[in-house]
Each structure stands twice: as structure tokens, then as C-alpha cells.
Amino acid sequence: MTDPTPSTPTQSRTFSPTPEFTAQANGEAPLYDQATDHEAFWAEQAHRYVTWDKDFDTTLDWSNAPFAKWFVGGQLNVARNCVDRHVEAGNGDRVAIHFEGEGGDTRTITYAELLREVCRTANALESLGVRKGDRVAIYMPMIPETVFTMLACARIGAPHSVVFGGFSADALRTRIADAQARVVVTTDGQFRRGKPAPLKPAVDEAVSGGDSPVEKVLVVKRTEGEVAWDDARDVWWHDVVDSASDQHEAQPHDSEHPLFILYTSGTTGKPKGIFHTSGGYLAQTAYTNAVVHDVHPGTDVYWCTADVGWVTGHSYIVYGPLANGATQVLYEGTPDTPHQGRWWEIVQKYGVSILYTAPTAIRTFMKWGEDIPAKYDLSSLRLLGSVGEPINPEAWLWYRKNIGGDRAPIVDTWWQTETGAIMISPLPGVTDLEPGSAQRPIPGISAEILDDEGKPLHDPEAVGYLVLTKPWPSMLRGIWGDQERYKETYWSRFGDKYYFAGDGAKYDANGNIWLLGRVDDVMNVSGHRLSTAEIESALVSHPSVAEAAVVGATDETTGQAVCAFVILRSDARDEGEATVQELRNHVAKEIGPIAKPRQIMVVAELPKTRSGKIMRRLLRDVAENREVGDVTTLADSTVMDLIKSGLSSGS
Ligand code: WTA
Hints:
InterPro entries: Ac_CoA_lig, ACAS_N, AMP-bd_C, AMP-bd_C_sf, AMP-binding_CS, AMP-dep_synth/lig_dom, ANL_N_sf. The protein is of the alpha/beta class.
């Protein structure tokens, strides 16, 4: 493997924790030692962070590897852990959620109120026929009802499948079909950049036709927009939830009972339904939220800016922080509505003390300028976090200086939909921080970097593949409906002892791990995983396109950007810019606006190996305006000249 980030600084500054921070931090140095007894360590965390209705008898059953079972024999109710127990402990008046709508509407929800709302929602879902084990699809914006619905599903034991509200009707349809969801919960629309945008029409389209497994669609009124209505299928939230009883008896579920499915892009066009179970997932999300985010319930105001449609929202808006009884901000909108200081205004307004966000957002704020955050009082912030892609040292330093007041530690947290919770990250009260590096596996996690042959690499700067060497509680339990693909994707590249993460990595001279991006055909655009194959098949589904190749090209703001090369069918007319626009919109319609290519280049040929494999590496060179690399394995070495001359002549 070659190093895609030759810019790793050789001399960088590190930042040590202050004694004041260390004195109050949840994550302490002895945890690393304690974790050498892997199972005993995790059993202890599971007892500390989770309330069990029935204690587990076996910490880890790995006898059927790579299918793990954690905390076997244990029973719990995840929703009761996230809500009821805080009320029972006398913290019912504590704020769980400060909701801030994009238009400035707000709602303050205490734990006592959250309990009533979750119970009502659970009763309403049951009245619509949802039973333990049934799947519920959730296609909603960032509003409190989304959190109520997820927790209500957890309470019933009905695994949810949250589909990001920016995905298309087609994407929703395939996810509903794969999980065989019986109910969809949605809204009439959502506010986006000051305007209402409809959401329900996509659901209508996704469940249309005779073959949909969906029996009921539950609709929250959010934007008051006109909606089409099917009396037999559609139900208003305010009709069934508001009138439902706010008492709901929750049953304990097995530790390994499925909690949710979340789809993520793989290297083929078909998204993978990553599924997670209850006990292990809850234990690790709560533990990491405590020791990495250093959340102190009752005093901190925590804000994770992710969308609940992604795993970060699942683990660090809903399950981890609520299990810990944290107070958090939930913001519906975009960072620049109605102005570019909106986030900082929110930090100031609620006294946010912990902010968890993504590098792409930080780079956007850098572009907007430091004058904007400087207008607000950000002195409440005491810890910053980053997730989703490598954070370049420059952005890290900007974040620390302009948002963290040169004071707040930054935790750069590496993990994945599949890992369920944070895996590699500094502990803010312990670690000397190294900008740009996620540093070390947290206590309880072990990783290695392997070369092509599977040999561990320890030399500084030697680039290899990141693997995880031991099972962990919040690990995925498989791919919904396709366990062969689970084994093949994650447990075969280096044999069945290593979980293959799909990321390149290296150590620096201080033993810190640097993550170097994906090594497979998955792109990372603004922290969102997109598969080249999925976008290629969307392009080829357009009647004008004969063939398509997609690459992720480096982009200053979004990390990577989608660049597509297409060959038009011989009977299609190339209308230049109009054709390109039409194809871009087609991808947005097929997958969602986040997948819209930044650039589409119409070409006469694509570079292929003799075995017919597209050489994306060469296309990436073109997309990034580089000298084209080695072409000797091409079936026809003149193809690249053809592509380049065609592009420079403006076709
Ligand atoms: C990337 C998001 C470097 C990585 C939680 C991983 C990161 C993929 C980091 C998972 C980080 C996430 N540093 N790279 N701190 N965090 N990644 O499933 O390539 O949406 O494999 O989970 O994002 O993306 P996913």
C-alpha cells in the first residue's frame, strides 16, 4: 500500500492534559492496565454502565467465531436503561434533551417527560401491530419524535432501521425490503435551509406497488405541508401517540436480542444491513461516552451534531448519552441557517460543554473564517470531539484554537458503523494529544496494523491495514440476512482471527496510530460512506449511460468528492453541460443528494486491466489533476491519453 497522506508532520506539537482536567476525568490511566484481563474488564464495565434485570453468566461466548455473544444469559431493557432508571433514581427533572428547531422553535424535555413520551410511542406502535422482533423503519429528520421512536422500538424489542432522511425513495424501498419492515415512521416534511421540504412522498413511493411488507405508516406533523393520504395505511402521530397511555410495562430482553439494523455502503452496490444487539452495544456506548467524551451527567451539556440517520447519532445521541443520563442538545438544522454562526449561538445559548462533530464541518467553518465563532461566548466548552474521517492537523489546530479557546482537549475518535462504538481514541484526561492522530485503542480494545501478507507492522511510517484482534462488546453481530457476506467482508482478508476494518493505517515514532482512509472501493464524503459501485450502478441505470466508473477525489472541504467518468451509449446525444446535470440529478434521485457527483466527465473509454477490472487509481490521478501513474497493466495503454486529450479539448 502507498501512503495517501505524505503530509504527516514530522515535528508536531503535543498537548498534555491539564491537572484540573485529569482530576475530574472519568477515564483514568489505570483502565489500560485493568483491561489486560479482557473479559473481566468488560464484565466490570457492563455492570457499571448497564442495569440488568437478570445478570449475565458468561461474559463472552466466542465459540462460534466470528459470531460473538456478549453477556450471555443476561437480560435488560435498553429503553429502561436510557430513561426509566434515571427517573427512578430521582433525576426525572433533569433535562434530557434541549431541542432546537431550525426555525428557532424549542422544546425542553426532562427525563420524566421523555419517559412519558417513550411509553406513549411504544403503546401506539403496539396498537399498530408492532411486536417484539418486528422491524420498524424510521425515516425522519432530527426531531424529538425520532428519539422517542427509537427508544420505543428498543422498549418493545422491535429492531429499528433508521434510514437517513436525505436518502431517496429507492434507497428507502430497498432497505425496507431487506429488513422486511412492517411499519414506517416518518414526517410530513422537514425544515432544510429555512424551507420546508417534503418527506412523506418518498415513503409513499417506497411502499407503493403490491409487494411492500409495510402495513402502517405513522406520520408526525412537522411542516404542516400538504400530504397525500391512504386511509387504510397512514396514521397521524397526533391521533395515536398523543392519546396513548403514558404507562408502558417494559419486558426484559436477552442481551443478544437485536436492537437495530443500520445500512452502510459496502464495496458492492448492495448496502449492508449492519446489525447490533442490546447488552454489549449499550455497555460499550455508555462506557465510551463516559471515558472518551467525559460526560458528567447533571453538570455537562453535551452536543453531538451528527444526524440520527448515521451510527454516530445512534450511539452518541441516543444510546450512550441517554444511558448515562446526560443532558444534550438536539438540533434539527444546518450550520448556516439562518446565518453561519448558528452553531456557536447554540453553544452560547445552552452553555454546551462537550461538542462532538466531524472534520468536514470544521473545515467548512475554517473556510467561513474565525471571525464568526469569535462573536460568541464559547467559554463553556471544555471538551471537543471529532469523528467520521481523518482530521488533518491543520483543522485540528484550528478547532482547538478557535472553538476550544486553546484550552479544551480534542478527542479524535476512530470507529465504524460495524464497531458500534468508539475504538481508537485518546482519553482526554490521560493522553498527550497528537493533532491528526486517533492515537491508541481505548482500554478494552486491541488493534494491529498488518502488511499485505498479514504480518504485524510496528516500524514507524510503515503503511498497512488496520485490524482488530479481539472481539468487543458493541461489535456488529453480522449482516442482516447475509452472514456469509459478514464472514467474507470482515473475517477473511487476514484469516478468521482478525477483523479487517477496511482502513489503511500506520504508526508514528511515538506509537500513535494514524488512520489513512479506506483501502476498498468505499469513499468518505463529508464523513458519509458511499460505495463507488452503488453510484456506478445508479449512473448505468440512466438510459444514456453505457458504462461508468466512480472514484473519490481529494476535496478540501468534504474530504473526498464523488467524481464520475461515463461512457454514453452510442444512440445517446451528448449535450454537454445539460447531459452532465441530468446525470448528476439522476444519481441524487436514485441514491440521495449526498451521492451527487461533484464532477462527471464524459469519456470515450475507461482504463481497464486485461482481466477487465477498471483501474480507478488512474482515474483518481485524472480527477485530482495529477500526472497519470503506471499504465503498464492496462489492456490498452493509449486509453489514458485518449481520456486526457478528450477532457482537455473540453468534451
Ligand atoms: C472513517 C462513522 C479516521 C474510517 C463512525 C471508517 C475515521 C469509516 C475516523 C466508518 C477517524 C471514522 N479518523 N477515519 N476518527 N472515524 N473514520 O461507518 O474510514 O460511517 O472506516 O462510522 O469512517 O464510517 P461509518
